[in-house]
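Why does residue order matter? Because the sequence determines the fold. Keep that principle in mind as you read this record.
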Amino acid sequence: MRNIGSVVLSFEEAGDLQGVIPWKVENPYQLFLNIKEQLPSLTGFIYLSTCNRVEIAYSLKVSGQHDRFLEILTSILPPLRKGVEPSHYRGRKAILHLLRLASGFESMVLGETEIRSQIKDAFEDALLKRMVDSRLRTLFQNIFQESKIIRNGIPINNLPLSVATLATQHLERYEPLEHKGTAVIIGSGPMSRQSAIYLAKDKRKLILVNRTIEKVQQLAEKLNAGLNTFDIFLNQTENLCPISAIITATSRGTYFIDKEFIKKIQFNNQKHGVSKNIVIVDMALPADADPAITELEGVRLISMETLREELEQNKSKREKAVIEAEGMLEDALFRIEVNLVSSMSGPILTMVQKRVKDRSRSHLRNLLEHRLSHLTQKDKRMIYTWAIQAHRDMNKVHRRGLECLLRHYYTENRKEEAVFGEHV
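Structure:
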């Protein structure tokens, strides 16, 4: 466990969402190679980037090189603004952080459902690029399993389940009932999908827009929504139906919803005899919508920063939920640790058990052929069956013994951390 670490730059470390942007990279694999070139001990690397955080989970051959990893990482990535420092977790605290993250306790919206999907995508992407060693593979597989159990037991109900849900709820507050027209959802990521699903409950007309139509085609069919390519939507506004809302969450990196584009949408709305009022929900980071569009009459922009006050209020709810779920987290953490150690010691334990089994079988065969040769075949088969069962029982004892040792070790370890502080 001491070989595992996690570096975090979220909205909390950065102070705002814009402070996270410098660490958003287009090619995580190249970042992994650049670090590994200077730190050959790096064996596993998973890069997660969401609208409000960048997380890097990693694994080292040498547990004493965590500081070196952070030093190399920060020297390669663009500098952060003065006063902003990433959080750096090591060993058991890194595993606990990742478990809390996957369970929704670290999210801007308590218990959100998107983060687990985003972590899975990051994990699978790292797997495809062969950046995941056996230690991280076992860790994340266990985290996915345990976080699902914890997620179902979060003791706070009736809260928005995602940033997308929260944002679309704001959209409904600002969009007058008489002006509810077609809503356009841009992007194929989790937040765009969540927004589409949420708005579809209102039976309103939806149009899904994406650069690659195939990525949203199945969702469009499920929601009975229209489809448009990004280029057509952007450049042929005169062919569009009246639009009262646009929800966007792309990774484009530059403004494409600007004053000129909104003027075209408003003109098209008025041509159809519809109000030019329009609400833009921008969940992208960097933003997709130019803030200057709010200077236009009838335009309201809901951005991630717009939601900041409500998200800050959510922080106290998160802290309360974590306290109430402390027991669940500790139990899950222990099971993950047992499975981690078992997976690492498993090959050795299997080899030892095989040798014991082979020697025991040889010794038993020798007994049955010589000193116990007078026994009937039925008696010999009975003794042989007893021997097999005893071997299986011994293997179970090995497993229980390992769990007892781990429980004792981590109980004592927590006592030491309480007295001496965190250690690597």
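The radius of gyration is 28 Å.
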